[in-house]
Protein: Nucleoside diphosphate kinase
Amino acid sequence: ENVERTLIAVKPDGVQRRLVGQIMQRFEQRGFKLVGLKMLQVSDDLLSQHYCELRTKPFYPRLLHYMTSGPVVAMVWEGHKVVQTSRTMVGHTNPAEAQAGTVRGDFSFHVSRNVVHASDSLEGAQREIQLWFQRKELLNWDCCDQTITCE
Ligand code: DAT
Ligand code: MG
Structure:
């Protein structure tokens, strides 16, 4: 019950600063399950759909420029309450207000370069995963621990 999926994306600054491994490690060590992963140059079209709620904001043009300034690493993580838990792990939108121990609180200091994206609700996660990933790019797998057979 409550097994959810969420979209996490390491933004161009995170990729350029070689933070992908450290960010993925946090989700793995928390125990979440990676079910989708790809590196991509995001298109304006994808971004305008992804950030459709922000299109009237003054910072929107700069946000699009930042998000298309280099490749992004997109991932889908699965687990119990992963949407809310990953928001907590990622920290406040504005890194200046993000707590130490969060990704943004540990790796960034300004809202214009906040390293990572995380879906903010179950509905948002479902919408974003559909937008970023094809169905066949999401893989179901079982843990080897559960499939060991003793002869
Ligand atoms: P979040 O990424 O925490 O879900 P959001 O959805 O409100 O935050 O905004 C999306 C991104 O837009 C955010 O990660 C960074 C940018 N952004 C938000 N508010 C901003 C602001 N006041 N100035 C500059 N960029 C901002
Ligand atoms: Mg958001």
